[in-house]
Design brief:
Helix content: 55-70%
Radius of gyration: 25 Å
Number of domains: 1
Structural class: mainly alpha
Number of strands: 2
Order of helices and strands: HHHHHHHHHHHHHHHHHEEH
């Protein structure tokens, strides 16, 4: 009997050993694709509203406010440096694209799949926005003709915003591909001016696409993903002195992108306020963020210059500290009984979800909003400016729902399931009004269940 027991035990041990060996072989097979974030999906809920704030800040910079804004010196100073929303976007893009790339590594997806999702995320909405930009002069003139009684066909003569009407096939090809940043344009001293005849903000997309291409190349060497990124960063340092930003190359802008990559690297390794400070993180982070913003407001209110790279460093540090508020941001929204607070948070998150559409079209759609509002609001007032911003945001939200959101989903090449192309799974924008407390709770629990199953 004892011999039979020993034999059965031996067989059990052998079966267990074989199972362990199979598991070990499986782990070895996937080691090249492992990274610290595979244990738990990264979640940074504040990223979305910050993207919305960046887009809105750029919008305010491009809007011509009434002269009475000068009576509000602090607000006037902040509006005058709204161009700093661009380095904000680059830093946030560095974080988000790294999160997406590391997710590709963790899920053992192909580099082609990553690039395909980036293409779907950027180009379709961009191309559709070009159609809106082309239509704007004709729509505005049609509305104006209702008052004047006659319609004047818009032309490119004397109107830089209508310069696209004189484009030839080569010009359209360079715009559609975003390769216009590499084209020599007479009289254009910077990248913004190269696109000013159609929509000046498009130049940043050309830089973003280069970021995506470089990230895709780094995914070909997944074991050394961060080391490869570091090497490109080292090479970009002399480029700050050698390569002109007007060249169209990404290298002068790469350091801003790397700041976001660095923040993601720290978050992967849990070197964040929420981990290092524990329950004290929200209070400490709130104090540091408030003090930092106060110093920045004081600085710009004195009319002192702010360089993009220095602001990117400042914002990167602020973003890392703000991670300590992330958990409180979600928990407070789940527990809050105040309708005003809940609506305010939803508006911030929806603004973040539509930030790409807002960024693409604010500079042109604001003229349509102004044309409509002149009939009911006196133009030279701050009320007119606020109404213009609100109505333009509504137009951009409609564009987001119809033209951007349908391209934000794709099927996973491994599971075949429908996924949202958003590296923040807990707060992925999936609906016209997606951010109810119940929706946020469901997404938060979904992240926890995925982490637990792994």
């Amino acid at each position: 009997m004892n011999q039979t027991y020993v034999s059965a035990t031996t067989d059990s041990v052998r079966a267990t050993t074989d199972s362990v060996r199979a598991t070990t072989d499986n782990v070895r097979a996937t080691t090249d694709n492992y990274h610290p974030a595979c244990g738990r999906p990264l979640r940074f809920a504040l990223i979305e509203p910050l993207r919305g704030i960046a887009a809105l800040w750029v919008f305010c910079f491009h809007h011509q406010f009434a002269a009475s804004l000068r009576n509000l010196p602090i607000l006037n100073a902040l509006v005058s440096v709204g161009h700093l929303g661009v380095p904000m976007f680059f830093v946030l893009s560095g974080f988000c694209i790294t999160a997406s790339a590391r997710s590709v590594i963790c899920n053992q997806e192909s580099t082609g799949r990553f690039l395909y999702r980036r293409f779907r995320r950027v180009y379709p909405a961009y191309w559709l926005s070009i159609g809106v930009v082309i239509a704007m002069p004709f729509v505005i003139e049609a509305i104006s003709s209702l008052n004047t009684g006659h319609y004047v066909t818009p032309t490119a003569a004397g109107q830089i915003n209508n310069g696209f009407m004189a484009y030839d096939l080569t010009d359209w090809a360079s715009v559609a591909s975003l390769g216009r940043v590499f084209v020599s344009i007479p009289g254009a001293e910077d990248l913004q001016e190269k696109f000013s005849t159609i929509n000046a903000v498009y130049w940043t997309l050309a830089i973003e696409v280069q970021f995506y291409a470089i990230t895709g190349l780094m995914l070909l060497r997944r074991k050394t993903f961060y080391r490869s990124m570091f090497l490109i960063t080292v090479l970009s340092v002399p480029a700050l002195l050698i390569v002109s930003p007007s060249s169209g190359l990404f290298l002068p802008f790469w350091p801003m992108f790397v700041i976001g990559i660095g923040i993601h690297w720290l978050c992967e390794r849990k070197l964040t306020p929420s981990r290092l400070l524990g329950s004290r993180a929200p209070r400490v982070a709130a104090a540091v963020v408030a003090a930092s913003i106060g110093v920045f407001v004081w600085y710009v209110s004195r009319g002192l210059p702010v360089r993009h790279l220095w602001f990117a460093l400042y914002f990167g540090g602020l973003l890392l500290v703000a991670e300590g508020l992330d958990r409180a941001f979600i928990d407070h929204d789940l527990r809050s009984q105040s309708t005003m607070i809940r609506v305010g948070r939803r508006l911030m998150l929806v603004l973040g979800a539509m930030s790409y559409s807002l960024y693409l079209l604010h500079a042109r759609l604001q003229f349509l909003s102004m044309q409509l509002l002149r009939q009911v609001v006196r133009p030279d007032t701050l009320m007119f400016d606020v109404a213009t911003i609100v109505v333009t945001c509504m137009f951009c939200y409609a564009f987001y729902c119809v033209c951007e959101r349908p391209f934000m989903t794709a099927r996973s090449s491994r599971s075949g399931k429908l996924i949202v192309d958003n590296p923040m799974p807990a707060l992925a924008a999936q609906g016209a009004w997606p951010y109810s407390r119940r929706a946020i709770y469901r997404r938060t629990e979904a992240v926890r269940s995925v982490a637990g199953s792994r």
